[in-house]
Write a structure and sequence with these properties.
The chain is α+β, with helices and mostly antiparallel strands. It is about 60% helix and about 25% strand. The chain is built from 3 helices and 3 strands.
């Protein structure tokens, strides 16, 4: 009888261990793509801010590109989750992002929170851009 008890205990322990491993793999399967999309989104927003500072785009144009990228990456970002400030005098764009992404694990819903504060300066001055455009025209 003791041998049967030990065997059942061992099988239950092994089964529990595999159950926990499967739950962790399932959670990772759902969560990792969201973090990858959020990282890509932050990099893209930095690029849009840098281009906006370089080309002197207004906040509305930059916001449009940011929201399009969020839609493309299937992130639930709304205009009120993004704040863009273009300081033309300093040739700098400030971007602040704050949004939540719900992730349904089946047995529980996670609500992942993402934030970013970006400060991007223009890569080129307007004079540099004008010279490049003139060189391309010839």
């Amino acid at each position: 009888m003791a041998a049967l008890s030990r065997t059942l205990g061992h099988n239950f322990s092994t089964l529990t261990r595999w159950g926990v491993i499967l739950l962790l793999v399932h959670a990772g399967w759902k969560v990792v793509p969201v973090y990858a999309a959020a990282l890509r989104f932050e990099q893209d927003v930095a690029t849009f801010a840098r281009v906006g500072a370089t080309e002197g785009q207004d906040e509305g144009e930059i916001l449009y590109h940011v929201l399009e990228r969020a839609r493309y990456l299937e992130l639930p970002v709304k205009p009120e989750n993004v704040r863009i400030l273009n300081d033309r005098a300093e040739k700098m764009v400030l971007a602040r992002l704050e949004y939540h992404v719900p992730v349904d694990l089946g047995y529980r819903e996670l609500r992942l929170k993402f934030r970013a504060n970006l400060r991007e300066r223009a890569l080129l001055t307007q004079q540099d851009l004008d010279q490049m455009r003139k060189a391309v025209e010839y």
